[in-house]
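Incident log entry.

Two folding requests arrived from the same account within the same minute. Monitoring flagged them as a possible duplicate submission, but the sequences differ. Recording both here for audit purposes.

Request one:
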Amino acid sequence: MGAPHLTPARFARVLLVLAGVLAVALLGSALVGAEHIDLGTALADAGSVDHVILTRIRLPRACLAAVVGAALAAAGTVLQALLRNPLADPHMLGVSGGAALGAALLLVFGASGGVLHAALVPVGAFAGALATMLAVYRLGSVHGRLQPYMFLLAGVVCNAVAGALIMTLNALADFFQAHGILFWLLGSLQTQSWGLVAASALYVSVGLAWLLGHTRALNVLSLGEESATQLGVDVARVRRGVFVVSSLLVGAAVSVSGMIGFVGLIVPHVTRLLIGPDYRLLLPASAIMGAIFLLLADSAARSLLGANEIPVGVVTALCGGPFFLYLLRREGGRGVD
């Protein structure tokens, strides 16, 4: 049975339901942690410890998890559409690794401390993500046409190279720089401020707005490049735009959270199964679902071992690794070219 036809009522209904679930996940994540807090006390007494923990530590972290999850899920959704490859994911394609390498280079060789350094790290992450995306695209193309599995293998190789270069930087760095590099490798949402959350949300919103304006072109591209060209889509322009914007989204996410893998692989598939393949609804729904997924993963990372916190990137990898193997086996069984 095909997916229900997209109507304005269905569009609003699905997004309202997901927004409600996201609000519940945000509140639940803010209340989870090694230190129990009373919500009533936190809201009633601005001078209480509960209020400080809620408003200065947990809520900023939960909001940042939502922003990062939305960015990674949206990037994965559009990359799968553009490449017509269900295994496409910013992490597997090496884009996250390239972003982490760019950020690590700025950490080690950039301006030391201060506002300039904080501003340059996201720039380095974006540049690394975009450079890796372009390299993988060139390596995965034969006579100007993308070969999905060559593209994937090129991404895996670039990811390995980026990891090796990051470890080389780690050997050259001092103790504090090495600690920062470890942050990029494991993925973490710790110690974030409201200012950083707001800046990241604005940065990601710009990219999401551009992608939402091109969902009709993504729907046509899912039919294939030749069909899209016949229907009047400027494939080269849309492809360049999606590559740049998805790199912007991944760079924004990695610059504040490090390498958190598989969000862009798991979430688009689950969302597509639930609501169908129409990118006009699939893209915004995937962004919200990505926010919910990372909130749940971060809550698990902070609570499974009590006072000992697991890096959230470890939790998403434990979920995403088996999911990727399942998809690889399923697509291989179908004989995808």
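Request two (distinct sequence, not a duplicate):
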Amino acid sequence: MTKIRHQNIEQRTEHGKSLREQTPLSSHGEWSPAQNRPAPVSLIEEQNNGRLDWLIPVRRWRMSTSPFTFFRGSARIMAADLAGTPVSGLGVQACGDAHLANFGLYASPERQLVFDINDFDETLAGPWEWDIKRLAASFTIAARHNGLKKKECHKATRRVVKSYRKAMADFATMRTTDIWYAKLDGDTFIKTADEAGRAEQAQAIIDKAQSKDSRDALDKHAEEFDGKYRIRSEPPVLVPLRDLGDEQSGGKLLALANDAFETYQQSLADDCKRLLDRFSPVETALKVVGVGSVGTRCMIMLLEGRDHNDPLFLQIKQANRSVLEEYLSPGPYDNQGQRVVEGQRLMQTVSDIFLGWTRSDQSGKDYYWRQLRDWKGSVDVEDINADDLTYLAFVCGWTLARAHARSGDPVAIAGYLGSSDSLDDALVEFAESYADQSEKDYEAFIEEIRSGRLEAVEG
């Protein structure tokens, strides 16, 4: 990341402006696949090494659902493609997978809804350009997938970049602590949607999000058996460890979860440790989540507080090396779970109090922990119209800029971006070119499945 030297505002602004000489804003629009570009399907398949074999076909099926779900699972492909693109040299804590489906609503510890980035599996210090380019491309791909006209695709993509640029200019004028406290709450989410004529739709998302809590998770994921709750068996998406035989690593996973629970607690603040002491683990299950993560060891743990009507669900998610690390310096943390958690805390204004990490003594694999289904809400990207994309573009662009302003130098970045729409034009061009390539990669992936060379199983 860029270390902010204690220069005055003018010097930092001029430094940002001077970087346009070596990396013009227009250069960010130029992209074409490298001659020695790695085979995209091979990059995806290499990530299956070490995953649970019986879930790999499910991952392929989820990625094959649409061009957008393929894009969601192809962060490694895009990291390889971005590695050769121009950068200004101004660093931030990058999300690493900043597509629009990784933004959404969740509950703050103060029990208020906030809109923020919500996936940090690939976070690492890196160029701000890589995040905004992935975000811009995701809007173009989502718009195309939903049958929007080319003009509407350009409008949504342009707005997300413009929102990022203008928000960074605003953050450049703010006090440091004000940037740190800045957040987009539920009221602002509604207000922004109202300006786009989508207030009713936004309110529906909020209402649905606020219904998702541990009690709702209990109804969805558990059942009563002999007067006690246990996790439902819904293979392959939800599989209690009690159902797994040794050939599916059931015993190893159960030992891992039980042994790791105490270690995980040591990564929490003392007040949260005291809170968690009031809960007892009941049962653990494998739960398939996301698209790109399918096949990694992702579990949920049901805990009980004062009685069986006082549940808490925690998610335990395997943390591998960031896909960005193949092209950037590794992070400062030996534990990949800690990399995810610390990156999340740096980029979000408020984070889940149950965020923590652990390492399995048996396998050496790293994990991070968080609360499951705590007022989580998002827009259905697989069925989205032009108006929804318009207001989503504004809040996503603002949110990404805020996250970058917390870890980078907003004054220098704003100086580099300037007040013209040059970057907006460039990234619309980039997103168009990259969407073309991503769709070709998707077709190549589908052909591997259709031919039978790769197995895909619905789940």
